[in-house]
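hi! just following up on the protien thing from before. the input was this:
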Amino acid sequence: MNANGDLVKWAGERGWSFERTQKGHYKFEHPQIGKSVYTSGTPSDHRAFNNAKAKMKSLERQHGLLKDGRDRKRRSTETFQTRAKMGADGTQAAILHVIRCSTTGCDNEDDLQQALTSQGYQASNLAAIFRRRGWHAKMDRRHDLCPSCRTRLGDRATEHAKSETADLSQAFQLQKPVWDTRRRIVREINKVYVSPDIGYMAGEHDAAIAQRCGVTEATVAQIRSDLFGPVPKSTEMVYLTREVARLERELKIFTDVVLTHSAKLETTIASVRAQLGGMRKQEQLEELQQASPNGHGAANTH
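and the predicted 3d structure came back as:
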């Protein structure tokens, strides 16, 4: 069966009558719905057929005529229940949009009548109408409250909110000095705490900060632990160890520099000594030449 036949069969099972217009369009009518649905008669226009199904389902939902299980499931999730108001002759005379109180043990309900020929209400419009009647109408029926339950629960919620506000205000007044003291302790710790690896500077510890801030040592220890973690077991020892390591590095650098200069000095001294030895030999030779009667002969004999 083609798409045209599927749509006609689907609509016929739901009570819709079918006829073809002079222009070749499909016209569907329902005996309990005062509106017609038109769609294209082109077999390949699947989107038009889907739109026609959606329009028919929407009208059925507005008039309380949904039949298949899927539509009943969708209807159960609607904000307001829809019922059919039957006339004296057994036919549907109007549509009732019903709201029920969600409070346990309360069976109050209210309804809004809609004529069959009028356009359907939107959920937001229905909620606004019921709110004007005193209902607490939400877009979820599980939170709908009738006027009496709304007044009773609303007064209780107001009293509870006032009580919570007073408790919070009192707690804030009590905690404000605590916050100021904590900020002061944090500032003191940041001044004298070197790092998580080193810990405090020499001579500083939790007890000293606690004494300056006027709090217990446990309070300072807790805040310091939150900021930097536990203090090393021997803060001063760790600090001195790092100082010794730093001094040893500086000494090594200085020693390397001294050794370099020492080598240069030794080379210079050796050069000067060589020059000095040569000068001494030259002086001795000149002295021998002056001491002999014939300087040339002494020089040759030598």
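Confidence is low (pLDDT under 50) at residues 67-77, 297-302.
DSSP finds nine helices and eight strands in the chain.
cheers
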